Amino acid sequence: MSTPSLLQGASRDASTLFAGPLAWTEDLTVRFGRRTVLDRVNVAVQPGEVVTLIGPNGAGKTTLVRAVLGLVAPDGGRVLRRPNLRVGYMPQRLSVDRTLPLTVRRFLALWRPVTADKVEAALEEAGVTRLADSAVQTISGGEMQRVLLARALLGEPDLLVLDEPDQAVDVHGQAELFNRIAQVRQRRGCGVLLVSHDLHTVMARTDRVICLNSHVCCSGRPEDVSRHPEYHALFGGHARDLAVYVHHHDHAHAEDGKVVHDHDGDCCHG
Amino acid sequence: MDEFVIRALLAGGGIALLAGPLGSFVVWRRMAYFGDTLAHSALLGVTLGFLLGVNPMIGVMVVCVTLALALVALQRRRNLAADTLLGILSHGSLSLGLVALAFLETLRVDLMAYLFGDILSVTDGDLMAIYGGGAVALTGLALLWRRLLAVTVDEDLARVEGMSVDALRLAFMLLIALVIAIAMKIVGILLITSLLIIPAASARRFARTPEGMAVLASVLGILAVIAGLLASLNWDLPGGPSVVVAAAALFLLGSLVPVRR
């Protein structure tokens, strides 16, 4: 990771002058009722870094993202951000009520005062210029994802946060979206925090993978994680067949979600 | 034309003008039943106003806002669906209003006028309330317009962008309460919601932007007021219901018109 130069910093925001992560958690704990969804989770996103969260259904990936966004309040620990950090959020899906007449162009202009030129530029960067005058209710799931990317870019984010596109987006569409996000990262130098079920799609474009199952199971560079036994158990044999994969652990979970080790383990617990 | 007819047209037109944009939001946010519930509680506000010796409109505002806040608090519990809660509050508060009114034996209150409106007896004071309150409500709506649209599209996104979603929702409820307070006299508390949603629903098919829908809803609402009032005068029909029938007829007509997309 390179520290941003003063010149860059001057043209952007004071927040880029700070060293250290864009956003991070300290022992973040979230409970829904009696269930501990996140158990003392420590994650950080550095400037320019792409961090991918993987893990089974119910692992707390979306909850972690929502906590980083400030949409879920922690029951323990903290979520911290650089001062004046600009976050661009791309939700999993977005459906606009059919009663609301709204074009894509207009949708993009709702979130902050923006000039028409900036809207055009964002449409182009996300590759959805031809959809500008379509009603938001008529575009496909994949197109909506790119419109949501354009929306996030309009806020000139330091950190782009996105939940995995849902099943409405096919694998090809997802790969294209992630390519685009990788380009955006290159061009703008923003950090990216993303959630994925499918590591194959994001593997080549990720700097760091965090394997989550309420707690951080393991984390590291994708090639290291992909050699990790736990990763193989998670994704190796059943690539993209998410419904049937078995989540093998080097440890067991006690009733309350606490980790019970059954061997020394080489799994690095965050 | 008689003076009372002109006043009726001005009052109804003012309400319809305001109901266009606000009613569009009620439609977009799927809050028709919510509006109905607030309107039904207005009778209780009127009674309270009489009891405490303050303007009934103020009583209506207070009761509507209290009810809106109670609803928000009740919804947090999540063990009853929103429409069930609305049903309880709507009919509970309407009945409470009727019962409380019955206690005011010494006072002669024209109940029918509050339930169904009495547009032909509009006074200059009513007109001032409509245009004063309407100007306040329209200004507020214009100032909050973009943010209210953003919250309507997606509350999470609005929150991440730093908008105070709860404050915006409360402001919207206040605007509805204000409209109910000033529109009560015209169409009555049982019919207020129809003036909010019918013109907006009629406008939807022809609109390509939120603003287009709001403006067209106002125009259709004003047309309904004019048609309804003329019918009421010609054939000696009740004013408020005639206006609503005219609005519903416009909706039906509109849905027959082919729209090319």
UniProtKB/TrEMBL annotation, chain B:
Identify the keywords attached in UniProt to this record, alphabetized.
Cell inner membrane, Cell membrane, Ion transport, Membrane, Plasmid, Transmembrane, Transmembrane helix, Transport, Zinc, Zinc transport
Transmembrane parts of this sequence: 6-28, 48-74, 94-116, 128-148, 168-201, 213-233, 239-259
Regarding the membrane, this protein is recorded as: Multi-pass membrane protein
Question: What biological-process GO terms show up in the record?
Answer: response to zinc ion; transmembrane transport; zinc ion transport
Keyword Kinase listed: no
An annotated GO cellular component: ATP-binding cassette (ABC) transporter complex
Where does the record say this protein resides?
Cell inner membrane; Cell membrane
What the entry lists under InterPro entries is as follows: ABC_BtuC-like, ABC_TroCD
Keyword Transmembrane helix part of the UniProt annotation: yes
Similarity-based family? Belongs to the ABC-3 integral membrane protein family.
Query: What job does the chain carry out?
Result: Involved in the high-affinity zinc uptake transport system.
Q: What is this protein called?
A: High-affinity zinc uptake system membrane protein ZnuB
Organism field: Azospirillum oryzae
